[in-house]
Design a protein that fits this description.
The protein is mostly helical and 293 residues long. The protein has one domain. 67% of the residues lie in helices and 0% in strands. The protein contains 14 helices and no strands. The protein starts with 5 loop residues before the first helix and ends with a helix. The mean pLDDT is 84.
Length: 293
């Protein structure tokens, strides 16, 4: 299977017992309607979350020549292409910032979000053997996929520091906003990931539709162009995209620009609502996972 065998994961999920009782101590039955999130149970299985995250990281780079360098290549190559065609040839404005680092600062959180949503949406289907053999909080599976993508983000972030040093862009106190912004995009990815993971189990069409939707979504987000490029009377439409506040806030924290607090507030409220709805929806759908995967 991977560097972590199924037996090892099952051992973490199921306590060892010297002997089994004649009658079951606990009977697991499908829930009816909306059920409680039971976050205490997820916390009790936090060690399993760590092992599944580590498993996903090892699987991703197993038998690859470049290994973790792929985490840097994914945002780097699009940045070089966009810099050549949009920055140099099309003269795309970048709010007075060198276009190469302007594009990379947008591609870095976007690549993390797209990777986290894509991997988590397929995580439940990909863990069919594990789901059908042992009980544990299924919410851990998409959560592990999102955390694994966060490791890639951290690796690619190193190149951002190199680019800022190359362009002699100083750090300011606004860089402290990066931590809440990274947390915001992580929770946003987890919300979409859990929702799509449950839907993908039932409707496998999402496996084919999601890559196309992600591509379209990138061009509807100010990743390779500034929000100022959109006419002011239409910017409210752009702000309805929950990633607009995140991407623009990411650049504001790096380049000491004014924050669009309205867009950030909308992104935060949208993320909170989505996360709560997705968690309850996922818990409701997980009762049929073992039958469908």
């Amino acid at each position: 299977m991977s560097a972590l065998s199924e037996e090892a994961i099952l051992a973490k999920a199921t306590p060892a017992a010297a002997s089994l009782p004649e009658k079951p101590l606990l009977t697991i039955t499908p829930s009816r309607g909306w059920v409680a999130l039971n976050l205490a149970e997820v916390w009790a299985h936090r060690e399993l979350l760590y092992f599944l995250t580590w498993r996903d990281i090892k699987i991703r780079y197993k038998q690859t020549a470049l290994g973790a360098l792929w985490a840097v290549i994914q945002p780097l190559f699009p940045m070089l292409i966009f810099t050549l065609f949009l920055g140099r040839l099309a003269k795309m404005p970048s709010d007075g910032i060198p276009y190469s680092i302007f594009a990379y600062a947008g591609l870095l959180p976007w690549t993390y979000f797209a990777s986290a949503v894509g991997n988590s949406s397929q995580s439940v289907v990909g863990s069919s053997n594990l789901i059908s053999r042992v009980y544990f909080p299924r919410m851990i599976i998409p959560g592990a996929a999102v955390l694994a993508a966060l490791v890639d983000f951290a690796i690619a972030f190193v190149l951002l520091g190199v680019l800022m040093a190359w362009h002699r862009i100083p750090l300011t106190p606004s860089v402290l906003m990066l931590l809440p912004l990274i947390a915001l995009v992580t929770f946003l990815a987890l919300g979409f990931g859990m929702l799509l993971a449950g839907l993908t189990v039932k409707y496998r069409d999402f496996r084919f539709a999601l890559p196309f939707l992600i591509q379209v979504w990138m061009f509807a987000t100010p990743v390779i162009y500034p929000a100022s490029l959109v006419p002011e009377k239409w910017r409210w439409v752009l702000a309805l995209n929950p990633l607009t506040g995140v991407i623009e806030g990411f650049r504001s924290s790096l380049f000491a620009r004014p924050f669009d607090w309205n867009a950030l507030a909308f992104s935060a409220v949208f993320t909170a609502i989505l996360l709560i709805y997705s968690a309850y929806s996922f818990r409701r759908m997980e009762r049929v996972f073992a039958d469908l995967v």
